Amino acid sequence: MTDTALVAVLLATVAGALAGGAWAAGRRKARERQRPLFRSSPHYTEGLHLLATGQLEAATHELGKVLREHPGAVEVQQVASHLYREVGKVERAIEIHRDLLAHKDLTRSERAHALASLGTDYRKAGFLDRAAQAYADALQVDPRNLHALAGQQKLHEEQRQWREAYEIQTRLVRMRKSGDGLVLGFLQAEMGREALAAGRRDAAEEAFLTALSLDRRVFPAHLGLAELWLDRDPRRAAQLLEDAVAAAPERAYLAFPALQKAYAAAGEASRFAALCERLVSQDPRDWRARLALARQLRDGGGASEALGLLLRALEANPHVLLVHLEVWRTLRALGTLGPEEQRYVATVEGSAVYVDPHICTVCRYRTDDMLWRCPHCHEWNTVVEERVSPAAGTR
Ligand SMILES: [Zn+2]
Q: What DSSP element (H or E) covers 385?
């Protein structure tokens, strides 16, 4: 979750808590004509202000003080427990949720929400069995509690139980009345990959096709289908991969190895270069297409042409070490390197770790590999190649 989204969610929670507070106060008005006492605490006002300005640690601190003064303030417990979890103090969040659940006068939805939140605390802390139990308890209290269902779904994903995750996600999509099939598609693709690994080709094909009928952007489903067709009909596999590239050109490089195999098996190796050229003309910053093209040219004896391509790739992407390495290899192929330079290239090739930096567009989590599901925020299809622009003053 981005900071802005997180603050929005927390503010919504606060607004809900305030509305609940106002309602509860209204109920009490006849009896006592009094505002809830915690609202007169200066730490409460300060806590809300800090929350609204996105200073989560400080907000947690202030609301913690309110809780010490007014241990029974349900609304503050609800907000503070979320905050403690978000800032990584899961044990404290669990403690508050347990205190909250000890209240006898919670409404049905308050109780379900607190149980679901406790489930998420346990999930974050790695207690998966306890998390599953808390979510189940929440659904027993309120079978339509979205928070508990979403938590259960994530729990299944974390344990790679794709079918169970898919079933719950289907219910969630229906309850939220959202037409979004992307997550469902990715879950089907995972089911397909599992079937493929177990040699169940028909089941795999069915899952990949279902994934693509849910959302064309499910790139691993295109890859899986192509893999199924590669031996039987490489032309068809190439066609499937070309469709994938057309649907998501920014992911094209993930199809390059399979495309090269498919074109070669179909006796049309030159089509790979044509595809790379097309990608470069669509997006001049696509260094991966230039790199793939340069390698092919160099292997085919066109090293100086390859060098030109690589230098153009470097102009737009000076941070990409893989391109630098390829430049050196191409210089070696051109025979322009003396013995010292050759030793240098051999050392670099043998020792350097060529990471391929990727970043999650939702939570900014960084990884050295392309992942379909972010291991930090657990969203699907949010990891992209991390790009750095040339520094000011360079071309
Ligand atoms: Zn993420």
A: strand 383-385
The Cα–Cα gap between 370 and 355 comes to 11
Is-above-0.85 flag for pTM?
Answer: no
Q: Which residues, other chains included, contact 279 with Cβ-Cβ below 8 Å and sequence gap of 6+?
A: 245, 249, 252, 286, 289
The backbone torsions φ and ψ at residue 359, rounded to the nearest 5 degrees and listed phi first, read: -140, 145
**What are the residues whose beta carbons fall under 8 Å from the beta carbon of 106, sequence distance 6 or more?**
74, 100, 114
Distance in Å, CA 383 to ligand 1 centroid: 7
Q: What are phi and psi of 36, to 5 degrees?
A: -55, 140
CA–CA dist 285, 228 (Å, integer): 32
Cα–Cα distance for residue pair 362/131, rounded to 1 Å = 24
Whether 66 contacts 73, CB under 8 Å: yes
* Alpha-carbon distance values, 141 to 102, 148, 153 (Å): 15, 11, 18
pLDDT tens-digit series, residues 262-274: 999 999 988 998 9
Distance 120 CA to ligand 1 centre (A): 17
Please give the distance, rounded to the nearest whole angstrom, from the Cα atom of residue 94 to the centre of ligand 1: 24
The alpha carbon of 262 and the centre of ligand 1 are apart by a number of angstroms equal to: 33
The tens digit of pLDDT for each residue in 42-100 reads 899 899 898 888 888 888 888 889 888 888 788 888 888 888 888 888 898 999 899 88
User: In one letter, which amino acid is 138?
Assistant: A
Per-residue H/E/C for 307-358: HHHHHHHHHHCCCCHHHHHHHHHHHHHHCCCCHHHHHHHHHHHHHCCCCCCE
Between the CA of 379 and the centroid of ligand 1 the distance, in Å, is 6
CA of 352 to the centre of ligand 1 (A): 27
Q: How far is the CA of 1 from the centre of ligand 1 (A)?
A: 7
CA distance linking residue 390 with residue 395, whole number of Å: 7
CB 112 within 8 A of CB 136: no
User: What is the 252 CA–ligand 1 centroid distance (Å)?
Assistant: 21
